[in-house]
Amino acid sequence: MGWGAILGNYRISNETSNETATSTSTPSTSSSSESTENKKDEEEDDAVTKEEKEKRLPLSKHLWQIVKLCGKQWKWFTAAYSLLLIDCILNLIEPALYSQMMSTAIQMKSFDILKKACLVLAIVQFSEATCNTVRYICMQYAERLTARNIRIGLFKSILHQDISFFDENKTGQLMSRITHDSESISNSLPVYIETTTNNLFMLFGSAPIMFYYSWQLSISTFITFPITLLMTKYYGLFVEKLSEKENDATAVSNETVEEVLSAIRTVRSFAAEKMEHSRYTRNTDAWFKISIKSVVVGTFYNYFWATMWNIEDVVIYLYGGYLTLNGRMAPEALLTYVFYHWRLHAALNAFSSLFSDVMKTIGSSRKVIHIMNRHPELDYEVGTETPEVVGNIIFEDVDAALKVAKKCKNAKMEA
Known about the structure:
CATH class: Mainly Alpha
Order of helices and strands: HHHHHHHHHHHHEE
Transmembrane segments: 210-231
Shape: elongated
Main location: membrane
CATH topology: ABC transporter transmembrane region fold
Subcellular location: Membrane
Keywords: Membrane, Transmembrane, Transmembrane helix
Strand content: under 5%
Distance between the termini: 49 Å
GO cellular component, one term: membrane
């Protein structure tokens, strides 16, 4: 409820009743003004939502808009992703080195062979750590530059909007777009691209190796793919809608705080602390309900994935042991297959959460992209006539107060 409406209703009630109280308004007046203001807020929110839905970009175009925002720092991202490819190659070699080292130690072969295997593994891990360190520096610098550019671009777009835009959008909500939503874009998408590249490389690199060691075990591993992909698709679409609602609820809460703190003297003069506390509690409870819904759905989704992985692991171990005991698969091959199977599980598990995280980022960035692409109805920078600006500043009867300028009295300056 806006404090301008409360103040106006309060003055009207004072004029009609000729009362002298100046600290509180009557309950009927405050309740009627509150209901009227709430209706106006709902109508404005419906109008803004309708406009955004009409101009909402399709999913692919919206994602491309985010990529273009991050692509302005392509030099730093190129360096980071080049180092990422090197890291992916080293990650693909590691399971084979682990298998060689462990099989050598278990079978009690020559110590020189074990020492050589450990040395190669140490060199690979040191190279991987070096690449990750340099990649982290490049990635973080690029993300900070992207966040800076998005915030500046969003703020510039807001400044150039027509006045009706500020009537439809609350200050607190716009603050939430600049401070929270814009940063989530810059921090999320580069990480998602990095995770996608790493896990795709591991997926397409591990699959041929696993088929090489045992095509029977590989078929049993990949047979659950259609079910998991279908579940991930519907879960991601649900998370996108839920994320947009959650960000809207956060923006409403921020708008309430900004409105109350900016008019704290008016709130105190009307003794409306309890009323504003109740309003903020309602807005925060709305956000809490949406967040809990997201947690519940995410819990069932993660439980589904964990159950699928556990069943698949049991099948792999039983069938792999059966093949080994019947001489159809070497023990070293089974050990190597299990290591690559673990890496493949990690990659698929990352993909399961990656799609939902991408959809969550898309949901939180809808309003940001809409504002940045929104063109004002009247562009005040476009015109054909440039007025001649002429002005001057005149200082008369100037007396100097410095000791070194005692002679400067009643001076006149014109610029």
